[in-house]
Amino acid sequence: MSKQVRVGVIGTSSYADTSHLPFLKSHPHAQLAAICGRNRDRAEQMAHKYEIPLVFTDYRDMIEKGHLQAIVIATPDDLHYPMTMDALEAGLHVMCEKPLALNAVQAKEMAEKAAVVGVKNMVCFTFRWFALYRYMKVLIDQGYVGRCFDCDIRYLAGYARTPSYLWRFDRRYANGAVGDIGAHMIDLARWYVGDIAQVSARLTTIMERPALEGQPYEAANDAAILMLQFENGAQGTIRVNAVAHPGDRGQEQHIILYGESGTLESDYSMQGSDSARGITKTPCKIQGTRRDATHFEKLDIPDEIWEGTDRSNLFSGFTTQSIGDRLFIDSILEDRPAVPSFYDGFKVQQVIDAAIESHQKECWVSSSKSLEEKAHP
After folding, report:
1. pLDDT in tens, 47-81
2. Banded pLDDT at 276 (limits 50, 70, 90)
3. Which of 46, 109, 235, 264 has its CA 20 to 30 A from that of 368?
């Protein structure tokens, strides 16, 4: 295969530097052709580091002049919609960071536009590609838990504990923890259990943060609890917290699925990670019990899922396997569906919208409520 996909990246954050850019650089048929950032000096530094020939400070110029085939959008949430719509209008394949948009109305337009244009579209729900969670999906599809009737999902982190301004917790630009880390967990809940019909949520703002340049703003939640009713009758909870104190675990996630045939449980943390020294240890485990068993047993992730990766680092597969940004490129080259797609992003956004509305109204809210009603209450 000699074809190269010319890719442009919008965004020069540390996440773009440690994830999207090295992941794309590792693919033999991805050509990093252009990068765009508001700070030209920062963009030029990134361009030099990853040998990117074209540098822009306006994404529209990059779309027009970069001679691109695909684009990766790694910007604050409020920019996802306009950037994606412009890229789709130009006929580009698009990979967009999660959450897909600020609301379900925007996300629906993005998904519909991508379908009409006929390009590959993907949302970066990172955890779907972890070996841990891929094996859980295999076990679920094999019937390990049978009909799932209850799930409990938690994601605890401490990245927002400092009382400083962060755009993720400014309602003008994002939807707080429920939109940031919550989007990941909502996606896993859908993937494992099914579509979510109703939501009852409590969103909390724990940390007081200073205004940006003295301008007042509406603070977004930094912790959230969602109660879920799935369309198939299952129930569940999602708890996310960005101001927890996980100690040396860094971040931790716990998922328990209860079903007719058995129970499946996973634990993941970033214990022992040291970003300053480039160490990213990611301890994880899966255990389960089923049918007449009285004890949980450890379930080892098969070799074929780990193939080509460092088993102590769940991120290592993103530079060796067809997952994440590399899967996006492969989907273009092989003309196959890119998953998770903008449709998946739209379905997650519906749940985020419902959680926000539920908190405001203190009631259960349908996550599939008419979009026309949401747009024109």
Report:
1. 999 999 999 999 999 999 999 999 999 999 999 99
2. very low
3. 264
**How far is residue 266 from each of residues 153, 194, 289, measured CA to CA in Å?**
10, 18, 12
Alpha-carbon distance of 279 to 357, in angstroms, equals: 40
* pLDDT higher than 60, residue 377: no
Question: Which single residue is written with the structure tokens 């214990």?
Answer: 271
A 10 A CB-CB count for 363 gives: 10
Residue 5: left (phi > 0), alpha (psi -120 to 50), or beta?
A: beta
User: Are 246 and 201 in the same domain?
Assistant: yes
Q: Is the pLDDT of residue 280 over 90?
A: no
The answer to whether the beta carbons of residues 196 and 231 sit under 8 Å apart is yes
Residue pair 289/296 in contact by the 8 Å Cβ criterion: yes
- Secondary structure (H, E, C), 106-152: HHHHHHHHHHHHCCCEEEECHHHHCHHHHHHHHHHHCCCCCCEEEEE
pLDDT digits (tens, 9 = 90+) for 180-193: 999 999 999 999 99
Domain count, the chain: 2
Whether 6 has a pLDDT exceeding 90, the answer reads: yes
Q: Which two tokens stand for residue 351?
A: 């749940």
Q: In what order do the strands lie in the sheet with 93-97?
A: 54-56, 30-36, 5-10, 70-73, 93-97, 121-124
pLDDT cut 90: percent of the chain above it: 86
Instruction: For residues 108 and 146, state if they share a domain.
Output: no
| Pair 119, 36 in one domain | yes
Instruction: State the DSSP string of 341-355.
Output: -HHHHHHHHHHHHHH
Q: Is residue 58 located within the same domain as residue 149?
A: no
| pTM (2 d.p.) | 0.95
Q: Is it the case that residue 286 has pLDDT exceeding 50?
A: yes
For 287, phi then psi, to 5°, come to -140, 160
The encoded tokens of residue 44 equal 């030029």
Tracing tokens 């306006």 back to the chain, one arrives at 58
Which residue range forms the structural domain that includes residue 190?
A: 127-314
Does any domain span residue 170? Answer: yes
